Amino acid sequence: MTCKSLFFSLFVLLCIMTGSAHAKKVYINGIDANYPPFAFMDKTGKPAGFDVESMDWIAKKMNFAVEHRPMDWDGIIPSLLAKKIDMVCSGMSISPERQKLITFSDPYWRVRKYLLVLNDSLLSKTDLLTGGRTLGVQAGTNEAELLKSMLDNNREANFSLKFYDSPPLAVEDLINGRIDGAAIDSAPADEAIHKGKKPIKVVGDFAEPDDFGVATRNEDGELREKINKGYELLRKDPFWESLKAKYISVGSQ
Hints:
Structural class: alpha/beta
Low-confidence stretches: none
CATH topology of the largest domain: D-Maltodextrin-Binding Protein, domain 2
CATH superfamily of the largest domain: Periplasmic binding protein-like II
Shape: globular
Number of strands: 12
Largest sheet: 5 strands, mixed
Order of helices and strands: HEEEEHEHHEEHEHEHEHEEHH
Number of domains: 2
Radius of gyration: 22 Å
CATH architecture of the largest domain: 3-Layer(aba) Sandwich
Number of helices: 10
Distance between the termini: 68 Å
């Protein structure tokens, strides 16, 4: 091998090694692809939403890369634990049940728990929770767990549950008369009422508000530090207000 060839080979090897050294860590974010305004697929088939754009901003600021991967919601925590994804930044409520398995970032958003009926319905919150009615709720959510707990622990509770893959599907069945009410978070409810112009209304809250956090595996402390610092910086940046104006119809905070 000539000196020129040896020099060229060493130069190529150095470039490869340097590129590898500076390659950004890629984290996979599991999302609910039908949970507007926090996460959904846009008209071009790309992930979009408040959480998607927030995490994109944080990734850029904290020098890592993120890929948003749509998944079934009721299997998203098992996927996280199995290391098929690295985080869940997709409108996930922090709950004691989930905290037995995973560790959340600091809270970044607060939501209320709404009961919805048709605009012309005379049903009240009490009617829905004690009158033997059928409520639609997304499977695998904190809302579903809260309603199940209500049935188990409140002697006055009298309703049945029908489970859906997403809040919009529950809303559509409500509109089509297949259920009496829907139990969903305030943000997707506001999205349906104000942006989607759905003929539905809120008749009350069925539980106390709760907070969204980014779900991570217990051992991934370094990633949580990046996420927490990223949200701290994001909330101080004008882009945070731009995101709220773009995605949050009424807003719960």
